[in-house]
Amino acid sequence: MGLGRTDIWQTGLIHRSMPDVLRTGTLADMPVTWLPDPGPFRFIADPFGIWHEDRLYLFAEAYDYRVKVGRIDVFILDRTFRVIAHSPVLVEPWHLSYPVILRDRDGSFLMMPESGKSGVQRLYRATDFPYRWKEVEGCTFPGPMIDASPLFHDGRWWLFHTPWHEEERPRVDTLHVAWADSLTGPWHPHPANPVRRDIHSARPGGTPVVMDDGTIILPTQDCARTYGGAITPLAITTLTIREFAAHPLPPLTAPPAWRPATDGLHTLSAAGPVTLVDAKQTSRSVIGRAGVDIHRMARKLTRRTPRC
């Protein structure tokens, strides 16, 4: 990211189901409701949602450039998409993002956020939904992952992800697949890994969905122009424990009506009758960003200074 360049993401709800959005092939002219602005040099991104008792529980990364460590927040919305509650729900010493939400067979709620900076992929179970979560022990994921996107299909779990390797940059052009009989593992890496190398359509960017014709569509990020520049739907036509075949569909971009958030798009996730998205506005305020960075460094120095 260049001097003074700051990515600010804005999360919204498109009033169409994700299969409808994918069939249409464009986001133009689709009604969208945006979450409230969290304030300067903060953003809400990576939205995933689930309906429960006539409420939409939208989980997302909450990020403040003054802190630079993401946490997971929940926004509770009614049927008119009015936010009726908002709260942090998962905070760790490491960065958290991409909070995929699932229901287990027993009806309990599971969250699989990106936690690569901790060195492992983690799975959490709600102990008091949606506010309290406890890590599920005994999971055997295939190492730390970026934007891990699970799908239950044909009687087993599939996990689309980009491996987390600090030494490999830019970590946006590789797609791996793993499979398991249980979400907690053991997970088996696909023998064709990496199943895809393409900066336009490899790193996951949302919920995999199965279309009416049986094709799996995995949202992926087009990072050729900029990080999270667009969503490329990846049509997966063959997915077995030995074979994988896919081809990209035309990319989805933020339409002009979304200005100023038209500089990128990097999440497309299904939530029943609505589709959750995040769109990017790039701030180029050198002075503003410098002030934020100075504030963050001052906080660090204050914490490190011993008290007499």
From TrEMBL:
InterPro entries per UniProt: GINT1_N, Glyco_hydro_beta-prop_sf
Pfam families: GINT1_N
Segments forming domain Glucosamine inositolphosphorylceramide transferase 1 N-terminal: 40-245
UniProt name for this protein: Glucosamine inositolphosphorylceramide transferase 1 N-terminal domain-containing protein
Species the sequence originates in: Komagataeibacter xylinus NBRC 13693
Origin organism lineage: Bacteria, Pseudomonadati, Pseudomonadota, Alphaproteobacteria, Acetobacterales
